[in-house]
Structures are given as structure tokens and as C-alpha cells.
TrEMBL record:
Physiological role: Catalyzes the dismutation of two molecules of 6,7-dimethyl-8-ribityllumazine, resulting in the formation of riboflavin and 5-amino-6-(D-ribitylamino)uracil.
Domain Lumazine-binding: 5-102, 103-201
Name of the protein this chain belongs to: Riboflavin synthase
Biological process terms in GO annotation: riboflavin biosynthetic process
Annotated source species: Paraphotobacterium marinum
Cited CDD domains: Riboflavin_synthase_like (cd00402)
Keyword Cell wall biogenesis/degradation: no
Source species, domain of life: Bacteria
EC number: 2.5.1.9
Keyword Transcription regulation applies: no
Gene Ontology molecular functions: riboflavin synthase activity
Lumazine-binding repeats: 5-102, 103-201
InterPro entries documented for this protein: ATP_synth_asu-like_sf, Lumazine-bd, Lumazine-bd_dom, Riboflavin_synthase-like_b-brl
Keywords, in A-Z order: Repeat, Riboflavin biosynthesis, Transferase
């Protein structure tokens, strides 16, 4: 069975052309850059702002439909998508493709408000405050995906649960980050390898402690 995986390297900036409201489902009509949809088939997976979506209809060589259910709309930022909004897009990787970022599932863990933006030269530093139960999976120099983009955590304060990432000019020009404002929600996917390691170690410690009780 082929596992759908993304790399966190954004391949294009797409635009929400239309949002069609249905009963507990929204259909997004998205326009992609020319060439992005080459050989695309119905049922294929595309990451939109980090969310793995299934192609439900191909209108033409740049226009595609996706149906999104209520649970995904609530957990992610997709519930607030509007017409003309720009989004990060990445096609699912194929076996043998170079992984320029880190492996992503496209399953968002939570959305998080952008707390601060600091411009330093041509770079920008984004700060996020997260819930305590998620901060245990985030480490300085570790991976994290924000709106589908593979980024490196520069710093995290475990006391305040605030972490920072740096965005270089290349990342800012190839993604939608340059349009983001303080207070906006962004999609977060924790690095799965780190999550598994932390949970495994914690489970082992808990098991050891039980023997002393």
C-alpha cells in the first residue's frame, strides 16, 4: 500500500477561487499555477496549507475541486478560507523523490495564533504560543510544519510554551508567509518521529515508576 507523504517544500502558491457551502461540507475550487496539475488524477492528494486534501473533480488544467468535511474545517484553518485567499500547495511525493524538508502526513494536529513577527534584515522571525501538552514535542533545532512548510525550530521556552522559527527570503517569496499578520491562525503538524520518541520514552518511564508504587 502506497503511503501518501509530503516533504514540506512548497511547490506553488494557489488561490481559492470559490467556496461552495453544503451540509457540514465545503467544496473548495482552487486555481493552481500553470504546470502544477500535470498528470493530476481524481482521487490524488494535495497539501493545501498543510492539510492533505483529496481531488474530487478536475475542472481544467489549473482548476480543481476538493470536498472538506466538518471535522477538518474545525481543526484546521480551512473553515475560514475565503475567495481570493492565497494558500501553500504541494503535490504528494512519489517513491524516490528527494525529501528537501521532512516527512509530513498532511494531518494537522492543531491551529495556532501567530503571536509576533520580528523583521531582522531580509529575514522574519515568527513566534507562536502553544498549549502545554504540545510543547513536549517541540525542541530547539527540531522540525515542525507550519501551513505545510517544513521549518526548523530556532528556540522554544518550555516555561511559556512559546517557540520561534526564522523565515529566510527564499521561504518568504515561495510561500504565503509574507502575507501573514499577528493574530492569524496557522496550521501546525508536529514531527511524527519526535512525537513517537517522546511518547515511547514517557510510557517507559511511567511503566518503571509503577513498579515502585
Amino acid at each position: 500500500m502506497e503511503v501518501v507523504m509530503f516533504t514540506g517544500i512548497i511547490q506553488g502558491i494557489a488561490s481559492i477561487n470559490k467556496v461552495i457551502e453544503k451540509d457540514q461540507v465545503k467544496t473548495f475550487e482552487i486555481i493552481f499555477p500553470k504546470g502544477f496539475c500535470k498528470d493530476l488524477q481524481q482521487g490524488a492528494s494535495i497539501s493545501i496549507d498543510g492539510v492533505c486534501l483529496t481531488v474530487t473533480n478536475i475542472i481544467d488544467d489549473i482548476t480543481v475541486h476538493f470536498d472538506v468535511v466538518l471535522q477538518t474545517l474545525n481543526i484546521t484553518t480551512l473553515g475560514s478560507f475565503k475567495a481570493n485567499q492565497k494558500v501553500n500547495a504541494e503535490r504528494a511525493s512519489k517513491q524516490g523523490d528527494e525529501i528537501g524538508g521532512h516527512p509530513l502526513s498532511g494531518h494537522i494536529d492543531f491551529k495556532c495564533k501567530l503571536q509576533n513577527i520580528e523583521k531582522i534584515g531580509n529575514n522574519q522571525k515568527f513566534s507562536f504560543k502553544i498549549a502545554h501538552n504540545w510543547s513536549k514535542y517541540i525542541f530547539s533545532k527540531g522540525f515542525i510544519a507550519i501551513n505545510g512548510t517544513s521549518l526548523t525550530v530556532s528556540e522554544i521556552d518550555k516555561n511559556t510554551n512559546v517557540f520561534e522559527v526564522w523565515l529566510i527570503p527564499e521561504t518568504l517569496s515561495e510561500t504565503t508567509f509574507s502575507d501573514k499578520k499577528i493574530g492569524q491562525d496557522l496550521n501546525i503538524e508536529i514531527d511524527r518521529n519526535t512525537q513517537i520518541m517522546v511518547d515511547t520514552i514517557n510510557a517507559a518511564i511511567d511503566e518503571k515508576l509503577k513498579k515502585f508504587n
